[in-house]
Task: structure prediction
Amino acid sequence: MSILRRLQQLPLIAALLLSGLAQADTFVFTAIPDEDESRLQQRFGKVADYLSEQLGVEVRYIPVKSYAAAITAFRNDQVQLAWFGGLSGVQARGLVPGSEALAQGFEDQSFKTYFIANTSAGVEPADTLTDALKGKTFTFGSKGSTSGRLMPEFYLREQFDAAPEKIFSRVGFSGDHSRTIAQVQSGAYQIGAVNYSVWDSELQQGKVDQSKVQVIWTTPTYPDYQWSIRGDVDARYGAGFKEKVRAALLEMNDPALLESFPRQSFVPASNDDYAPIEATAKAIGLLDE
Amino acid sequence: MSALANLLQGLGSGGPDHKYSGNKPPVNQRDGAAGSSARRLTSVCLLMVAAALLALFGADLQVYSVDPWQELSRIGLGLVQPSWDDLPSLLQALAHTIAFALLAVALAAPLGLLLAMVFHWLPVRLLCAAVRSVHELFWGLIFMQLYGLSATTGLLAILVPFTGMFAKVFAEIFEQQQPEPVQTLPPAAGALKRYIYTLIPQSWPALISYSRYRFECALRSSAILGFIGLPTLGFHLETAFKQGHYSEAGALLWVFLLLIASIRWWLRPQLLPLYLLAAIWLLPETIGFSDGGSLWRFISVDILPTALRQGDGGELLDWLQMMFSEQVWPGLVQTLLLTQIAVVLSGVVVLVCYPFASRALAGPVMRWPGRFLLLVLRSTPEMVMAYVLLLLCGPSGLPVVLALGLHNGGLIAFLVANASDAEHKSPLARPDDPKGIKRYAYVETPRRFPAMLAFLFYRWEVILRESAIMGILGVVTLGFYIDSAFEEIRYDRAFLLIAVTALLNILVDTLSRRLRRFAHADSRLAKQSRNTSINCH
Result:
């Protein structure tokens, strides 16, 4: 952290209306993992080091709190690469012409959502969403989540032909998949929709008490998390930069790096892979036509 | 009926002129005017309580049969056994928290002072009312669209609303100064000279003590900005709570508590220049973005509804109608109902808590546990309190009301206890003063009541702003819809909702001022407000 860089901030304090300082040569990315958001800086700092080594430019990671913040940063060119959810990726690429999906997690090719229920709610596992759900309390994950909001809302509307608020007596947003599990387990909500990989990993870690909460339905599969990159990176970091980034992501095979996401590996992806997500978002009114 | 008539009459007349009343001797409680002022106090109180009782029917206060004890014991354990494993990032977050607060106040106070000097000018008053009616977190969300997650966003989010508050309170302080010094100046001396040679020196102690108090508020705001992603204590606090890492949350809360409690030992005027330089040094490094046009894009495109940009009047009307019936109205009603209950609950908390922290009632030693409790209540940000309560009593307005009541009640109880302690060994104290519950019922509470009420009315607007913001936690107040709009990247909706929230705030602020003047609560407060101030957040 050089003194010079610190001094650069002085005019910022004085004028306060500068639109930030452009450090043109640093390549910046952000990522919100679907579970365990602690110590992001340390964990993703390692990913930044790896990318820096592969790409030959300085790479930095900035932590964000929400998909919306990640999208804003991507749109304003504060980050050039981002690990988005399915929906946030579609929203972000819609705002930044020329941007594209580079790679997705191996697991994200066929992602799914579990509907879970507190055992006291009296809803039994079934092949479809049943009328037993009506009038219960229900929580999504975060508002901008694909697996915690978009897909479950789509299948609820498809099954009951009504908005979630009309199906359930109360609809909440827990903000996070781990919280969804915790809140359904504690009975704060009777039913919840949760990312399957978070559920599986919490089950494995013994955090789920299956006498209190169980899976009652599984959605069909859909594509989810992906790396998206801005379209203007080749112009800024040199020709072929985008492909170098894609290669670096696909070749990332150190488990220590991959567990931060957590994914077993990354596979190629394209914008077209996410057309179903876009259509779904439009269908339930989360995206304007 | 007569109470209401009385009240309406008072509202119509705009209340008595309270100029300079701060330096008049305390209103004599035994003369005829005191009888009517007591009646007015009672009628205002009854009205507020009745409104809160009515609000109980409409507000969403459902209790869920949650099984919280496991979670609660883990939180308790975390507080008792804080984890200091990640000390470097904790210290960094602490440094950022202080740096934002310090710099924002250092810039907002002089700006507020300048605006206070021209506060008689209507556009200035309107501007100040507008900027302070929007919560810091909403300012943060707005500036984040323009400046990303940068130091600029953090500073502006505190600086902008605080400037409006400084201007208002400084102007009020000037108004309360004695007129004699000004009269000694030659009539030709301009307004600037009047301020520089008389009003500012006269009110200097009050200006400083208010700024000091605002700094404490700024620390809370700065910490809370972490909830939306700025690198302050709230960033780690939110993660720790969300992931159930309560030992880390415990460590963060303890650090914050110590920070607030120790302000008076480390915030020294002679050290300020050093602190400010350090604060600039400590600001998080800004990762810039090259797109300088984002401000213009935000104003000219993002916040305008598509229909308006396309000039389609019919569609715009549909949009407005949809927004009003689905978001604005339900959010507005819940916000108002929860606010009303929270204000009255705060009053109850004050009446229950302040005796335990007062020297005359709890004793010189036994008041310390009480004072500690009040410190915890007033230092813990409402948002954090509501977050914990949400885990415990399920997702309704109940945790919001409880958190707001406890926090604001704790804050006012602290001021009331201080006022009570200030009378220790004063001429008002008599050897045959009653003790214990009689002293509470017949001496302390009646003496503190008007000021307490005035504090509560001041906080009304603050509580409203806070209940709106609590929507971010998922309770369906206006903030819920604002958060959703930002989350869905629909800034046009966010802008409309924030504008409505701001208008509501200005309305409640006006109403509270009218009620305060009507109940003559202001005059008793004026003396106190020179030492302690009330208008936090």
Observations:
- The first helix of chain B runs from residue 2 to 13.
- Residues 68-302 of chain B form a domain with the MetI-like fold fold (CATH 1.10.3720.10).
